[in-house]
Every structure is written in C-alpha cells, then in structure tokens.
Design goal:
single chain; mainly alpha; MetI-like fold; 74% helix
C-alpha cells in the first residue's frame, strides 16, 4: 500500500484536509469573495445579529464579522506556518550539528536549547513581543524562536542514533564531507519525525498567535485576526453571543484539524512511534 492510499484511508487525515484545505483557499482568495470592506465602520449597524446582509452579524463598530473572519485567516495561518518553517529550519540545523559533530559545540547548543525550554511559551512570547513590538513578522519570529528547541531535540536524538549507522560510516570512509553527510545522508532519514513535529507546531503557533492577539499583543488593529476578534467580543458575550461564537468555533476547528493532521502523519510516516504511545 503506497502513501497516498494510507493517507486516504486515514479518517483523521481526511477530516483535517476537509477543514484545512478550504481555509487555505479562503486565505489565498479571501479579498476576492468578501462582500463588505472589513475595515469600514458603520455606526448605524453596530452589533447586529446575523442577517441576509451580514451573514454572521456585525461587531461593535458595525463591521461585517464574516468578512473580518475571512481576512483574519491570513495573518493567523501565515504566522503559524511561517513560524513553524523557521523553527524547523533552525532546529533541524542545530540538532544535526550537535548530534553529528558533538563535543563542546554540541554541548553548548543543547544547553542553550534547554535554557529556552525552561520558559513557559506564552510568557517568553510576551517578553519578546514586549521588546520587539507587535506585528506579523515579529510574531512569526517569536514562534520560530519558541519552537526551535522542539525540532532541535528531535533532530539531535535521531542523529545520535544514526551517526554510527553503516550507511553513514560508508559515506565517511568514501571521503564525503561533513556537510554532505549531514545534508544528504542524515537529514532525509530524520525528515519524518520533523514533518510530524511541523504539523504540531503549526497548531501550537495558531493557538499562541491567537492568545497574543487576544491580549492585544498580536496583529495590530484595525487589521483583523481571530484571536483579536475573540478578545474584542468578550465584552459583549452576554448580550451578543454570536460575536464570540463564530470566531471561536473556527479557531477550535482549525486547531483540532491541525492536531489530527499531526496524528495522521505520525500513524503513516512513523508507525513505531504510534505503537509506543
């Protein structure tokens, strides 16, 4: 059975694709399908319930909630996927270096990684955002820094197991350079657990970005993001429940689908890891 058949037969993977694929399409083409300007305020139509004109109602400034949710997908996914990509590149590079070269350099890298892991993610993120300021690029870098240690530890532990393997020793005997061994021999063999960690990091990145935006430390207004919308909606949760319900529902479904995608990737790409759990 090939990979495509295994993925198509995995219910968690199918559910994840059904949720995430439309979100990615909407994120790419959102500005082309919205009916209202998500930044335009209309004080005459404040906090309206769902209607034919505003399918999910309006917010405290009379802006269309649906349009703002559609546009708000972009920064959330961009920050989560971009931050996970940065973390994967940095973490795998550091982990491969520490695991294969070892010695004092390896010890320094891993001790630095341990120091970063000592801090709770949300507190470290708030500290970094407080120093650098808010903004999409800063959020992306924050997530990249916070989750680099996770990729580094995976790459490090896997490299330690493989560096004495026969196929690696053969490359060394044949005179292959360290860069070639690390990049073309070791890295492809540790890619599966890194891909699994990537999907988990995307889910954590979405949650972290939403949490920071909820606290007012994420995407700067008036540009929308789901966490920011939920943060604004909390002041109206008793009288206008629809305002918080729809962004919260979309955020929960996205995080659930991303986590299930990670489980599906683990089941297919690393069945031994599945058995150990």
């Amino acid at each position: 059975m090939n990979l495509l058949q295994q993925f198509s037969g995995n219910k968690k993977f199918v559910f994840s694709v059904m949720v995430l694929l439309p979100l990615i399409v909407i994120a790419l083409f959102g500005p082309l399908i919205i009916r209202h300007d998500p930044l335009e305020m209309n004080t005459k139509r404040v906090l309206e319930p769902p209607s034919t004109d505003f399918l999910l109602g309006t917010d405290e400034y009379g802006r269309c909630i649906l349009c703002r949710m559609i546009i708000g997908i972009r920064p959330t996914l961009f920050v989560a996927f971009g931050g996970a990509a940065v973390a994967m590149m940095a973490g795998s590079t550091l982990g491969l270096t520490a695991g294969y070269i070892g010695g004092k350099l390896g010890n320094v890298i891993m001790r630095a990684i341990d120091i970063v892991l000592c801090f709770p993610p949300i507190l470290l993120a708030m500290l970094v955002v407080g120093l650098w300021g808010t903004g999409i690029i800063n959020l992306l870098l924050v997530i990249g820094i916070l989750y680099t240690p996770h990729f580094c530890r995976i790459a490090y532990s896997t490299t330690l197991k493989l560096r004495k393997a026969e196929f690696v020793e053969n490359q060394r005997i044949l005179g292959a350079s360290t860069l070639r061994i690390v990049g073309k021999t070791l890295f492809p063999n540790i890619l599966s657990p890194l891909i699994i960690q990537f999907s988990i990091t995307v889910a954590n990145g979405i949650l972290l970005e939403s949490g920071l935006s909820f606290l007012g430390l994420g995407v700067p207004p008036p540009h929308p993001s789901w966490g920011q919308m939920i943060g604004k909606a909390k002041n109206h949760i008793v009288t206008h429940k629809h305002y918080m319900f729809f962004p919260s529902l979309c955020l929960c479904l996205t995080i659930l689908a991303t986590n299930l995608m990670g489980d599906a990737l683990r089941d297919v790409l690393d069945p031994k890891l599945k058995e150990s759990h």
